[in-house]
Amino acid sequence: MNIFVILKRTFDTEEKISINNGKISEDSAEFIINPYDEYAVEEAIVLRDQHGGEVTVVTVGSEEAEKELRTALAMGADKAVLISNEDLDSQDQFTTSSILATYFKEQEFDLILGGNVAIDNGTGQVGPRLAELLNIPYVTTITSIKIDGSTVSIDRDVEGDVEKIETSLPLLVTAQQGLNEPRYPSLPGIMKAKKKPLETLELDDLDIDEDDVEAKTKTVEVFLPPKKDAGKILSGEIASQVKELVSLLRTEAKVI
Amino acid sequence: MGKKVLVLAEVRDGELRNVSYEAIRAAKEIASDGEIVAAIVGAGVQSLAEPLIHYGADRVLVAEDEKLKNYTSDGYFQALLQIVDAEKPEGIVFGHTALGKDLSPRLAARLQAGLVSDITSLEKVGENVVFTRPIYSGKAFEKKTITDGIVFVTVRPNNIQPLEKDENRSGEVTPFSVEIKDLRTIVKEVVRKASTGVDLSEAKIIVSGGRGVKSAEGFKPLQELADVLSAAVGASRGACDANYCDYSLQIGQTGKVVTPDLYIACGISGAIQHLAGMSNSKVIVAINKDPEASIFQVADYGIVGDLFEVVPLLTEEFKKVLVKS
Ligand SMILES: Cc1cc2nc3c(=O)[nH]c(=O)nc-3n(C[C@H](O)[C@H](O)[C@H](O)COP(=O)(O)OP(=O)(O)OC[C@H]3O[C@@H](n4cnc5c(N)ncnc54)[C@H](O)[C@@H]3O)c2cc1C
Questions:
Q1: Are residues A251 and A185 in the same domain?
Q2: Same-domain check for residues A151 and A35
Q3: Using an 8 Å Cβ cutoff, are B32 and B63 in contact?
């Protein structure tokens, strides 16, 4: 089976955010594989081990994303592709999905996995957009996937409820927390990853004209949420604190 | 000048979700003086259309088909595409719900449109509409515009104030006949896990428990407080990981993102990934026995104490004052 994972390099979830020159500052930030994409990598490896075939991880991003691709290779993926788009100053989810679609139209694939959302931009658009551009079905926020021949059975998380879905390959799915527990790369895995193929493609290599994938949206400002004033920590007997709290919620905060 | 804007109304358990009205309000801003057309899709949903008019829609299209009984991307996509082809809207608004998140990117891809997901507010700046949305799990915000083509956005529930309900408003409710071809994904069954009762993402009040609740049994006093306040019960990942409650309750970076008027955190330390899901709540109350817990840094009001003592007292006190008023 030809399995692909689309993944993104993102800030570590622990990172504090600061703004420099109107942009999110990346200085000294730690980067990771987007946590939801990590579930996708893990599931791809498990499915390959069950059904045979190959796992290819693909990212659209800067050269630095090579580090996250190597991590995925160390986990057990077979090949990596970095589609470099550093020079594009105007890009959004329309851009990324268009670039990926152009790449995938030249590939033979049975299954494409991704995260259901990236924790930086938080749009969750690229997966479903890509599936539409490739004219294949997709299922988002999956917590289980079983493949039997060309029949695919999926559990999909829908705001806490579970949909039992049946569909077929080729298919695109996006991972939700609960799909699996991603493995840590082992030391031998890390050694092997250094020798696994990692191909870098430029937009030219894909015959993409920058103008055709120009963003449809524009970010005009980035800002931090207003700092909250220090809250009120109540004191005294617990019973009187409780009374005070209820009264504050009614008269000061006016939420009850 | 004015734009025609299409709103997808959303039905859950035979009722319209509030986010539908919030979407109409957002559509109003985008439309200027243009027309708001609401679409309602499903099977047996005709009778739900009227309130959409009362909340500001000018017309409602009802697209019904047995194949639309359960949401599937394929079914709804075909219905929406036929509606868009017929109506040619210049703007589209969905809720940023499980359904909206799943469907909107696909429709945007087909229409070659830009899509601004998960907006929490919007404003008119000259001819443009500027949308605000959280990024980095609410640690920052960005303002965006759509530079080309259809203006397509999804609105985060509980953030945009719907218009005042006006039962005297009138408008046409018309069936829209759709042709739904084969579905490539089939929903065999829906297993209900999310607690019936108040929907977390739309709840005005949430009582949330963490590892400090100590057991599944320990959620009982929280549920009692929630019942008195008509609130929903939520949880930290700590509580879910420890099996005190179902993952469907998890709030945070990898759980639900909520924006209630009041969030009561009980026995939750306030890890950055938890804050990501609730820090935009209007008022936050923290109950924790550790005065150093980081949850107190985002709390508006805090009680340092044992939740098993504080929460039942709170329930009693609310019972008293809510009966009086
Ligand atoms: C990639 C990633 C994603 C994550 N996503 C999420 C997410 O979506 N949501 C989330 O919540 N977490 C998430 N986490 C986990 C997060 O880092 C924390 O581990 C988790 O939030 C801790 O849960 P907690 O506050 O319930 O537990 P703890 O941190 O153990 O805190 C328990 C608190 O209860 C207090 N307490 C104990 N007993 C009592 C008592 N009797 N009365 C009052 N207070 C008491 C303690 O003082 C303590 O502050 C994520 C982590 C990672 C790495």
A1: no
A2: yes
A3: no
Question: How much is the pTM?
Answer: 0.94
Share of residues in chain B with pLDDT > 70 (%): 98
For A181-194, what is the mean pLDDT?
A: 97
Residues 251-310 (B) with a CB less than 8 A from some CB of A? 253-256, 261-262, 272-273, 276, 279-280, 282-286, 291, 296-305, 309-310
Instruction: Choose the mutation target among B117, B245, B249, B290 for the interface with A, i.e. most A CBs under 10 Å.
Output: B117
| A102-106, B98-102, B219-223, B320-324: segment of lowest average pLDDT | B320-324
Sign for the pseudo-dihedral over CA of A242, A243, A244, A249: positive
pLDDT tens, residue by residue, B254-309:
889 999 999 999 999 999 999 999 999 999 999 999 999 999 999 999 999 999 99
Measured at the alpha carbon of residue A240, what is the angle toward residues A239 and A241, in degrees to the nearest 5?
90
Mutate to test the interface with A, among B76, B92, B136, B181 (most CBs of A within 10 A): B136
- What are A154-174's pLDDT values in tens digits? 999 998 889 999 999 999 999
Q: Is A233 part of any domain?
A: yes
Question: Residue A218 domain-assigned?
Answer: no
What total number of domains does chain A contain? 2
Dump pLDDT digits (tens) for B122-151. Answer: 999 988 999 999 999 889 999 999 998 999
A192 CA: distance to closest CA in chain B (Å): 31
User: According to the model, what pLDDT value does residue B201 have?
Assistant: 87
Strand partners, B263: B206, B284
Show the tokens assigned to A147: 């493949």
Is B101 a residue whose pLDDT tops 90? Answer: yes
CATH code: domain of residue B291 = 3.40.50.1220
Compute how many other C-beta atoms are within 10 angstroms of the C-beta atom of residue B111.
17
Backbone angles phi, psi at B22, to 5 degrees: -65, -35
Question: What is this model's ipTM?
Answer: 0.94
* Residues A248/A255, Cβ–Cβ less than 8 Å: no
Among protein residues, the one with the nearest Cα to ligand 1's atom 30 is B211
Q: Contact, B159 vs A228, CB < 8 A?
A: no
Find how far residue B146's CA is from the centre of its chain: 23
N-terminal to C-terminal alpha carbon distance within chain B: 48
Q: Is B291 helix (H, G, I), strand (E, B) or coil?
A: coil
β-bridge mates for residue A154, sequence order: A145, A165
What residue type is assigned to position A245 of the chain? L
Contact at 8 Å (CB) between B80 and B41? yes
How many secondary structure helices (H) and strands (E) does chain B include?
9, 18
- Measured CA angle at A99 (ends A7, A117), to 5 deg: 35
pLDDT digits (tens, 9 = 90+) for B153-193: 999 999 999 999 999 999 999 999 999 999 999 999 999 87
Query: Which chain A residues have a beta carbon less than 8 Å from that of B156?
Result: none
**Structurally, how many domains does chain B consist of?**
2
Phi and psi at A207, nearest 5°, equal 60, 40
